[in-house]
Amino acid sequence: xxxxxxxxxxxxxxxxxxxxxxxxxxxxxxxxxxxxxxxxxxxxxxxxxxxxxxxxxxxxxxxxxxxxxxxxxxxxxxxxxxxxxxxxxxxxxxxxxxxxxxxxxxxxxxxxxxxxxxxxxxxxxxxxxxxxxxxxxxxxxxxxxxxxxxxxxxxxxxxxxxxxxxxxx
Length: 169
Hints:
CATH class: Mainly Beta
CATH superfamily: Calycin beta-barrel core domain
Protein name: Peroxynitrite isomerase
Number of strands: 10
CATH topology: Lipocalin
Shape: globular
Radius of gyration: 16 Å
Family: Belongs to the nitrobindin family.
Order of helices and strands: EEEEEEEEEE
Domain THAP4-like heme-binding: 13-168
Distance between the termini: 8 Å
Number of helices: 0
CATH architecture: Beta Barrel
Largest sheet: 10 strands, antiparallel, barrel
Structural class: mainly beta
Keywords: Heme, Iron, Isomerase, Metal-binding
InterPro entries: Calycin, Nb(III)_bact/plant, Nitrobindin, THAP4-like_heme-bd
Helix content: under 10%
């Protein structure tokens, strides 16, 4: 599906413009404290002309046949952009809130169809599981959105947790 840059896109968001829209697909997850699982996911990036995107993601656990077993994670937030040091580069801040009781602040950069961020701060409610931070990598690969999320949680060192390939809806 062809993608057109919106007329009212804020110039600071140019390096992440490719992410705008709705993305759907499937992924895999595991972790030493979690059995491996398959999931379906939808990511939505919207904007209103200011130097940020609104982000919403929802996922659901699927069985080996791709049938929905149960709803899973929800997260929402704001991807804020500032000009980077080089043309075509952006410094980014991501503020996220999760249905599981976490709030996070992420920092990183975007350029060349890639967004890479790491956590700077994590706050959690008293009922949330122990989670200390992570690293995310999003990339535009052959027109698809691929991502990987490495996590530090439950006393474990930073290591792969989720990865997915999503197509523009």
